[in-house]
Write a structure and sequence with these properties.
mainly alpha; 271 residues; Double Stranded RNA Binding Domain; 13 helices; Ribonuclease iii, N-terminal Endonuclease Domain, Chain A; elongated; three-stranded antiparallel beta sheet; 3 strands
Length: 271
């Protein structure tokens, strides 16, 4: 992928003399780093080494791996949780994956690219990648919270945001292409990409919309050649119908139509 200029490298806050204050920047970096004990610093450094990056602002990495439950238990210490970095990392991830897919699959239309991206940035795939790199051992959780795939997925997004803020876009691009390369190949296979029921459920659960409900509308035709029509309901609303030679096939068609509708609605809201 092409090298890109990070917006964080372009925009700087001038001091009273019109230049960026190096001492102020250094002070902020030191404040972030000194808040981490040596054992924790060494653990985070090992993680960065595993990812092939050299982070200068280790405080950001620590923040990215601090769950809100842990921050709440240590509120008196002024510890920040990962939620803002997760928000930012999600946007960075979608942008880089979008560009990567455009370059890797130049013959795919917008619909195929959108479907493939939705699978790649889903909690399931993010959690699998987080598991592969052993991210869970670095995440700080509250005492009453157990590790879950969704927490690992969110931490990975936050970590992407932290690395971008520290090292810029080109480093994150290189990292994500390496980490997501194999998953992209797997997700591009028809047996994964065409499981629309799975895609729809991951999407609706990720958006806190619950689990899709499928209902048989009717069947018609001779007994040896029945055609089934199935509807799918999301959050109490019938989103689409599908037709097939079996109930399962009709459900897949209904899920495909509903998924495409929801993705289009989401894109319109984000525009």
């Amino acid at each position: 992928m092409k090298a890109a200029v990070s917006i964080t490298n372009v925009i700087s806050v001038p001091d009273s003399h019109g230049t960026k204050s190096a001492s102020s920047h250094s002070h902020r970096m030191n404040a972030q780093t000194t808040a981490i004990n040596p054992k924790r610093f060494k653990e985070l450094d090992q993680l960065c080494h595993k990812l092939g990056v050299t982070c200068g602002r280790m405080g950001l990495v620590n923040e990215a791996l601090t769950h809100s439950s842990y921050a709440a238990e240590h509120a008196a210490e002024g510890i920040k949780d990962s939620e803002k970095l997760e928000f930012f990392g999600d946007a960075v991830l979608r942008f880089i994956i979008s560009e990567y897919l455009l370059e890797r699959f130049p013959d795919y239309d917008e619909g195929k690219l959108t479907e493939l991206r939705a699978v790649l940035v889903s909690d399931r795939i993010l959690a699998e990648i987080a598991q592969e790199i052993g991210l869970s051992k670095y995440i700080l959780l509250g005492q009453k919270v157990q590790m879950r795939p969704s927490i690992m997925a969110q931490a990975l997004e936050a970590l992407i945001g932290a690395i971008y803020q520290d090292l810029g876009l080109f480093t994150v691009q290189t990292l994500l292409v390496r980490v997501f390369g194999h998953q992209t190949t797997v997700c591009d296979r028809d047996e994964v990409k065409d499981n629309y029921k799975q895609q729809l459920q991951e999407y609706t659960q990720g958006k806190s919309m619950g689990i899709p409900i499928y209902s048989l509308v009717h069947s018609e035709g001779p007994s040896h050649d029945l055609v089934f029509t199935v509807s799918v309901e999301v959050s109490g609303k019938i989103m689409a119908q599908g037709v097939g030679k079996s109930k399962k096939a009709a459900e897949q068609e209904a899920a495909k139509a509903a998924y495409q509708i929801l993705v289009i609605e989401q894109s319109a809201q984000s525009a």
